[in-house]
Sequence to fold (631 residues):
Amino acid sequence: MTLLEPHMTPSADDSLLVAGPGRSLAQDAWRRFKRNKLAMFGLVLVVFLLIVAIVGPFVVQDPTKFSKTVFREPPTRQHLFGVDHRGADVLANVVYGIRLSLFIGILATILETFIGIFIGAVAGWFGGMADTLSMRLVDIMLGIPYIILAYAFITVLGRGVLAVVLTLALTAWLQTARTVRAGFLQAKELEYVEAARALGVKSWRIMWRHILPNEFQPVIVLVAVGVGGAILAEAALSFLGVGIQPPAPSLGRMIADAQSHFASAPYLLLFPGLAIVVTVLGFLLVGDGLRDALDVKDV
Amino acid sequence: MTTFVIRRIGSLLLTLLGGYTVLFILFFALPSDPAEVIAGGNGKNPPAAVIENVTKKYHLDDSIPEQYVRRLWDTVTLGGESFQTHEPLVETIKTRLPNSLRLAVWAMLIEVTVGISTGVLSARRRNSLLDTASTLGTAVVSAIPVFVLAYLLRQVTGVYAFQHQWPEWARFPVLSEANHGWYLGIIPSLDQLKHLVQPALVLASVSTVIVARLTRTTMLEAAGSDHVRTARAKGLRERRVLTRHTLRNALIPVVTFIGIDFGTMVGFAILTETVFGWPGLGSRVARAASQSDLPVVLTLSMVVMAIYGVANLIVDISYAKLDPRIRLGGAK
Fold:
């Protein structure tokens, strides 16, 4: 899914023309990333949200403290985002919700990436049965509507925070595995791999130390986009009432709870909704920027 | 051609069987007590009599292989009924599937017209205001959860419009019904159209921006290719170069995406249908899921998967037909 276009960044070539001290690939990519305004905007959003997640809890009120006198109050100076139908401060809930979203999104994506790399590498390198079976599984799982698949894993794993993280990881590795497999299939035929083989390097070592670093760039893009996707998926599951159980502060469930009060108190839905949008947008923009900076195609 | 189609259908059936197997394992084989899940859902303690009832009704005390075969048969024949509402599944599918398809078809029309024209325009006027706006708009729309977008739209055209006496044509009902007013099964009556507009727009949103971006990319690629330069050198009019030479080539991947996306739309309508109360398969699956009505979720998911698979099949076949470079029946 290509979201943003390479024309936002100058072409890779002009940075190569400048003679001078050698630069690493990462430095090169960072130079290109920096010149992409939208990508930098995304990075600012992500950093801002991480700060909110870390510092926020020291600033806002207790999200589980319910006022006994104030319900459904529009934003005031005391409650910047208003008070919800239970008498809880919306700002505090949104801050804790962002924290939980980031935690779930990042952890699930790390896990998912490990699973995807492992399966993709084994399928691409060894081929044969391992390849056929695992790619069949990928096709099948991609054929099941995502929400149903995630729901099915939740029936088995339960609805705790860690169970949902595991669910998101077990349903999201498919794209990573496909991409890594394609990379390995190509690299397998290249001279440096042949050379390593001829030198008697063990398969396992060639896979992880020789090929993977070369095929890692698309994975980096998938990680950034994946965090956004995982956060959206968690919100959707919670919205449908099959995600994380209370009292964990999920943004998706806040929106589901707000729907019956929506006509009279739109701020109950607006602020958690905005929090999800800003979080996901940040990661998507960073992902697109990385795609251009690393010159990755087809992810 | 025939061999290709037969092989493709065979592989579709295998995929469907695999999908059934994955869902069966997750729903019925792995949970320690599926009867309890179906009877009460998570965390509630259902009475023992209900659990026993469920166990008997769904034969949950049979061995796993027996259950696998029995449930497979039930799924293929669309047999069985909801544990919660006792509605036979055949009826559910008969009334709801057409509604899902109608919504998906109209959403697809929006996707095609708006998506492709925006894509062409932003490729033609590269770096114009429209182009930049569509770049940022794409990322923003992809980041908004479908249900938030749906509520916002509903709030503006469904609630605010009525409160502030907007003109009649700009007001839309909050909940959508789909049971009345379809001509030829697919063309909505004026009243039905009012119910259709909002869910169709929301369902089309994400796909539309993807199509716009995809069209833009492929248009730019095609515009830089040799045959387009040759067409210009021959002195063809710009309009003809655009429609016959650039657009025609640029649209092949776009059409592929749209075809595959149709199947996805039928499945992904879960959130859209739920917010707008559209009586299709998606909203029913969502309700069954929140009630832990596993047999309903399983059967309806398989129906959605089958539609997705058939849509893919049609794309593959027509793609192979349109593009002579793709040889059918494998290399001989």
Observations:
- Residues 42-53+106-298 of chain A form a domain with the MetI-like fold fold (CATH 1.10.3720.10).
- The radius of gyration of chain A is 22 Å.
